Amino acid sequence: MEPGSDDFLPPPECPVFEPSWAEFRDPLGYIAKIRPIAEKSGICKIRPPADWQPPFAVEVDNFRFTPRIQRLNELEAQTRVKLNYLDQIAKFWEIQGSSLKIPNVERRILDLYSLSKIVVEEGGYEAICKDRRWARVAQRLNYPPGKNIGSLLRSHYERIVYPYEMYQSGANLVQCNTRPFDNEEKDKEYKPHSIPLRQSVQPSKFNSYGRRAKRLQPDPEPTEEDIEKNPELKKLQIYGAGPKMMGLGLMAKDKTLRKKELLCSLPDKEGPECPPTVVVKEESGGDMKVEPASPKTYLESKEELSHSPEPCTKMTMRLRRNHSNAQFIESYVCRMCSRGDEDDKLLLCDGCDDNYHIFCLLPPLPEIPKGVWRCPKCVMAECKRPPEAFGFEQATREYTLQSFGEMADTFKADYFNMPVHMVPTELVEKEFWRLVNSIEEDVTVEYGADIHSKEFGSGFPVSDSKRHLTPEEEEYATSGWNLNVMPVLEQSVLCHINADISGMKVPWLYVGMVFSAFCWHIEDHWSYSINYLHWGEPKTWYGVPSLAAEHLEEVMKKLTPELFDSQPDLLHQLVTLMNPNTLMSHGVPVVRTNQCAGEFVITFPRAYHSGFNQGYNFAEAVNFCTADWLPAGRQCIEHYRRLRRYCVFSHEELICKMAACPEKLDLNLAAAVHKEMFIMVQEERRLRKALLEKGITEAEREAFELLPDDERQCIKCKTTCFLSALACYDCPDGLVCLSHINDLCKCSSSRQYLRYRYTLDELPAMLHKLKVRAESFDTWANKVRVALEVEDGRKRSLEELRALESEARERRFPNSELLQRLKNCLSEAEACVSRALGLVSGQEPGPHRVADVQMTLAELRAFLDQMSNLPCAMHQIGDVKGVLEQVEAYQAEAREALASLPSSPGLLQSLLERGRQLGVEVPEAQQLQRQVEQARWLDEVKRTLAPSARRGTLAVMRGLLVAGASVAPSPAVDKARAELQELLTIAERWEEKAHLCLEARQKHPPATLEAIIHEAENIPVHLPNIQALKEALAKARAWIADVDEIQNGDHYPCLDDLEGLVAVGRDLPVGLEELRQLELQVLTAHSWREKASKTFLKKNSCYTLLEVLCPCADAGSDSTKRSRWMEKELGLYKSDTELLGLSAQDLRDPGSVIVAFKEGEQKEKEGILQLRRTNSAKPSPLASSTTASSANSICVCGQVPAGAGALRCDLCQDWFHGRCVSVPRLLNSLRPSPPSSPLLAWWEWDTKFLCPLCMRSRRPRLETILALLVALQRLPVRLPEGEALQCLTERAISWQGRARQALASEDVSALLGRLTELRQRLQAEPRPEEPPTLPSAPASDPLREGGGKDMPKAQGLENGDSVTSPEKVAPGEGSDLELLSSLLPQLTGPVLELPEATRAPLEELMLEGDLLEVTLDENHSIWQLLQAGQPPDLERIRTLLELEKAERHGSRGRGRALERRRRRKGRTVSPPSPVSGAAAGLAGGLWNRVPPGSPYLEAGHPESPHIPKPVSPSPRRWPCTSRLTPAVVCPPQAPE
Predict the structure, then answer these.
(1) Per-residue pLDDT averaged across 540-547, rounded?
(2) Mean pLDDT of 376-405
(3) pTM, to two decimals
(4) Closest to 125 (Cα-Cα) out of 152, 161, 84, 96
(5) How high is the pLDDT of residue 1007?
(6) Helix axes 1396-1411 and 1280-1303, enclosed angle (nearest 10)
(7) How many angstroms separate the CA atoms of 984 and 42, rounded?
(8) Residue 275: which of 284, 264, 286 has the closest Cα?
(9) In sequence order, what are the residues at sequence separation of 6 or more whose Cβ sits closer than 8 angstroms to the Cβ of residue 1347?
(10) Nearest alpha-carbon partner for 684 in 621, 754, 748, 629
(11) How far apart are CA 1445 and CA 620, in angstroms?
């Protein structure tokens, strides 16, 4: 038994070569280079350079092919022998009327072929039985011992194999039981054979491939239609696993009734009447039933028997046509005893119609057999019939590359149950050989092999007129590694064959799938082959070297003689595999390799190779022949002649064609062709001489190359004739080569004649031309050898050597060793000439002097010797000798100068310059150079350390030390280096100390730094850090002087000056005591400025404190004012101090500030009056006829205010959207108790509106400003804001005085009294419903009572802190707003009559008070008087109420959203204070929003917000609130 597939051991790997780019450019040259190594393995693999990647040129969409079908276990030779044996033994038993059932032994089918072979090897059946050696047979079949398997094998052998072997040996059938399969119990261990002729069966579908062969599985019951369609089913009697399968209705014949039925069916009447056919069926109970069938003639009956679709079911009694019944009966006589008696025991053969008595047979049969029976003669003839030749068949389906790839990948993935790229190559290899060796499993694959590239297109780019190639494709199309180019390269033999031989000169394409294989073979004419894998999965190769080719053939013939007996040229059919392990076990050397995509595989002449594909891939292959192939090609023709195999081309014709044009041949090829031509001419002379000796003298010339190959083939050996052939006048259809002159015909020699291509005189002439071409190299080589060896004593010139080298190039001589020596000699001579010219030119002064050529004296002498030894005459050798003489003279002079040291430096320098001009390095010149460098270095050190010299830097000192290390040592040099090192160490130490002083966090006082600088002055080195320290100390002294000067001036120093000094002092690396004092003063000034900013500036204000404190000088221009406000929003605006004409220097002079402030007040007043006149002329947005024009007002949002909701500023008289600005809140102004503020006292309602352009600050109370001024007086620093605040304070006090004087006048006092009476009268009137009230203090005087409104109002307008908290809005606020709306019709006025003389001064005072950025009670009192003196502004009140309603609605929605966010964040809202209504909400908002450190939060501060508390509620009213700050302008939000 063969070893199992699991025991498959991969052969060793073949050589793998990776050429460089230089090697890769010559394909055939590189293959010739690696041939000595690779040829020993038969195959090799070549990996091209990594960047050699030819594009795939096949037109994928148009590529269609029909693959071959391969059944794997029929490829292997030994497996095919076994299958053939099973076919034969199955046929034997089929003839006997039984179907073969293969038994199972130890859970595997019994190998009947191996059993038969082993029995024969052990001496035969009788010998084994006699010696009881069946156990040994079981052991050789690899069955385990001790299970009595030997007896079981004997039983199977006797029942199945032995009868067949007896018939094969020629003896009659001898058996104990002719029907070995009738026993039902024994049949249970058998399996039916069911092996049809394998090559005629269609391949199995790939989607249902079988891991077990179908012949070993229970077959489905065949129907009548199946039996009719499949001729193979007619040959088998029984199907399925059972012994007989009676259920199919396939009944056996009973031969005992054949003759009786025939006699009984004879008619009484004479005449050739055809009897009816009698069909005998055996019922299940064993009874016989005879049924008549339709009558048929004898011939029809015989044809029915041989081609019946139902074997064993019918028995037709055949009558011979044109014979009488008596003659018909007499013909039934036994062929053994020639008697016809005992006809009930007379058997009729179903094959030849002979008759035999059952007792006349050897051995006699005990009874008539059932079923079809054939006599021993027919059985032997059938079993001796040779099997049909094996070959592949084509598939019926045509594929594209895509469809074939999908099929191949699906098959592999399903077979291995994993993705195709994850299947290991080792697993596929083991599984392939397991399947190939198995007779149980029948796996079928398809292989697209031998596809013609001429028809379908090559995978490489090809230069033709079909399509335009890109430059990259053009490069690969002309590459020698392109398989379309390699066979026709100049060094290739095949380029001399005109015909495009498909597969040899024209590549073939191969599309493979997993397990598709190519069998053991060698190439046609034993040529080389090259295979390139374009893409896809690897291809596994096996190779055997040419030396073992005959050994491989012997092993395969020895192991499978049956195959070679029927097909002697089996190995040339490419249809047979044999396991490499089997070959290796018989001594055949085998190698393997996995060819991956982008790799080449080369097979060498007569190297057997085979392999299989690991998966879906695309490869291309072609043959090529080099000069070294020619002897192998000649031997191959002799081999073909012995095998009588046809040639692909005529070897003689190829040799003669190359010999006809020797000048076109490569020299190596010419030499090889000459050698082959010489052998061929000698053989032709011998053959023609033998022809003359036979007496054939007639001859005629024949141009054999013009004849088709089939018309010039030897009828004996099939060789294609070219030089000569023997023909016959009487037999013109055939000819023979001169090696078979006796096999032409039986005609007389006088009728035979010679057909020749060349005469025997022409052949030597061709041989001579080849010799001249081949020996031209020898002539040239002799010339070169004489020139290089100087054999005649004469050195050749360079021109003569170049002529020899040029001749070799022109005549394409091979790159031999002699040619390489010539090239080396020329290169060396040319290099010497160039070097000599450079040496000589290096001594010549001038611009063309070559200074780079430097050689030592020893090299000069060696160079001179080299020139003298070259086999080339050069006139430059005299110049080189002259240089050598000059150098030797200079050497002597230099030695004398060095011996007389100390010499003068000038003399040494001049000697050194002369030595440099020589262009040769003299040892003494180096000593001179060292002495000169030493003197130069000492001189430089002396100059650097001289007291009068400029101090050198540390880098200079270090450079001197480094240079001194390379100077030749001497006592003076050592002393100078020590001094330099000491000085450098001291300097670096002081430099480090200065660096620490400059970089230290703790700064040193000036005295310490001055001491360090003083000590470092004594070091004669420039120290950068000491210098920086000195400069820092000088800057510190200048800074101290500046501080003294500014502190001792006439005025306090300005803050800017102090800040500049502090910034400079901080940057100095010196500890300054004055710096701490200045920093404290600056910090105090900044603290005051911050406190003032919090007092005046609104939250997120776009103004600076100085701008707020200064008057608005350009208030007269509406567009300018508005653009300034917008520019401030964007950070583009110039400050008010610049508009006042104050420069930075003016701000340092208090007088300039005061003068500019006074002028600015006047400009502001004039400007606002002009602005009021301008804005008053603008159309009211409340009027329905308002249209857009350039005169319209523009809100801060950039739009024109129109319709309801617009408000007019009381100061500038301009219009704004109520939703875009901060507006007064009526509800807050009415919250005090009724006795102090009745609802109908409309002149006290807070309806005054100042736009954000007019009201730029919080407008604190005068008391707060006075507190800031007190703090300012304590500052030793002057601030511009301080001067501005003083001017503002003086202006406010002045206005307050005039206002109080006006209010105290008799007329105004009377008007105030009347207002008080009116309020009291309104308080006394009963009210149907009182609004919610706030706890408040008793009513105060009108001035004080009305005075507390504007300051908080301004504060609320800016910060937005006075917006009522949505969580704390009183439930009755909505009803309060409705109540106020209902009271509007009841408001009447004016309630006072103001004379023009009284009104005008008050309005002027009111205007000036509104311009002040200060809150004064007198301002509010004047405003109430002016309000009472005119009708109530109902339109403004309605607008304010609508805005407040919309704001309340939106605030509640935002409050609920805020509450939800707070709850999510886990916050808790502090409980409200026990204050009712909006005041509590406002208080909470102010308390939370006023920034820390605000003056409003200081205890007892006059401007601190009096937040209502349970114990002491504040009497002050809360300011109006707005939804938006003036710094943020946006459209109103929609309510939630």
Answers:
(1) 96
(2) 76
(3) 0.48
(4) 161
(5) 78
(6) 160
(7) 78
(8) 264
(9) 1416, 1417, 1418, 1420, 1421
(10) 754
(11) 92
Helix (H, G, I), strand (E, B) or coil at 407: helix
Structure tokens at 1125: 């406000």
φ and ψ at residue 447, rounded to 5 degrees: -140, 120
Apex 1117 CA angle, 1116 and 1119, nearest 5? 155
The alpha carbon of residue 182 and the mean position of all alpha carbons in its chain are separated, in whole angstroms, by 70
The single residue listed with the structure tokens 């507390």 is 1348
Looking from the CA of 1254 toward its CB, the CA atoms found within 13 Å total 29
What is the β-pairing status of strands 724-728 and 752-756? antiparallel
Residue pointed to by tokens 């240089």:
883
CB-based contact 1203:1182 (threshold 8 Å) = yes
Among left, alpha and beta (phi > 0; psi -120 to 50; other), residue 720 is: beta
pLDDT of 500 above 80? no
Q: In which band, very low, low, confident or very high, does the pLDDT at 174 lie, cut at 50, 70 and 90?
A: very low
Per-residue pLDDT tens digits for 1323-1335: 777 654 444 443 3
| Ramachandran region, residue 1406 (left: φ > 0; alpha: ψ -120 to 50; beta: rest) | alpha
Percent of all residues in the chain with a pLDDT value above 90, rounded to a whole number: 17
| Total residue length of the chain | 1536
Q: What are 251's two structure tokens? A: 């009944």
Token digits of residue 919: 């262009």
State the DSSP H helix or E strand holding residue 1021, giving kind and residue range, or none if neither. strand 1021-1022
The CB-based long-range contact list for 1289-1292 (8 Å cut-off, 24+ gap) reads: 1289/1262, 1289/1265, 1289/1414, 1291/1161, 1291/1412, 1292/1262, 1292/1265, 1292/1412, 1292/1414, 1292/1416
What region does 443 belong to: left with phi over 0, alpha with psi -120 to 50, or beta? beta
Rounded Cα–Cα distance for residues 1207 and 1216 (Å): 5
Q: Is the dihedral of CA 622, 623, 626, 628 positive or negative?
A: positive
Torsion 59-60-62-66 (CA) sign: positive
Question: What span, in angstroms and rounded, lies between the C-alpha atoms of 1441 and 884?
Answer: 121
Which phi and psi angles does 468 have, rounded to 5°? -80, 135
The gap from C-alpha 941 to its chain's centroid, in whole angstroms, comes to 65
Between CA 1373 and CA 1371 the distance in angstroms is 6
Pairing of strands 539-544, 699-701: unpaired
The span from the CA of 820 to the CA of 800, in Å, is: 16
**Distance (Å, rounded) from C-alpha 1281 to C-alpha 1289?**
12
With contact defined as beta carbons under 8 Å apart, do 594 and 563 qualify?
no
Q: CA 1360 to CA 1522: how far, in whole Å?
A: 6
Mean pLDDT of the chain: 75
pLDDT at 315: 32
Amino acid identity for residue 1525 in this structure: T
In sequence order, the β-bridge partners of residue 282 are: 288
What pLDDT is recorded for position 1122?
Answer: 58
Contacts of 50 (CB under 8 A, 6+ apart): none
Distance CA 663, CA 772 (A): 10
Query: Are the CB atoms for 983 and 1020 separated by under 8 Å?
Result: yes
CA 541 to CA 553: how far, in whole Å?
Answer: 18
How many Å apart are CA 1278 and CA 1295, to the nearest integer?
Answer: 26
Asked if residue 130 has pLDDT above 60, the reply is: yes
Which helix (H) or strand (E) segment holds residue 525: the answer is none
First and final CA of the chain: distance in angstroms? Answer: 96
Q: What is the DSSP string of 1248-1289?
A: ----TTT--S---BHHHHHHHHHHHHT-SSB-HHHHHHHHHH
Count of Cβ atoms closer than 10 Å to residue 762 Cβ: 12
Are 851 and 821 in contact, with CB atoms under 8 Å apart?
Answer: no
- Tens of pLDDT, residue by residue over 612-622, are 999 999 999 99
Contact (CB, 8 A) for 1442 and 1207: no
Lookup: tokens for 719: 């060789």
Q: Is the dihedral of CA 1329, 1334, 1338, 1342 positive or negative?
A: negative
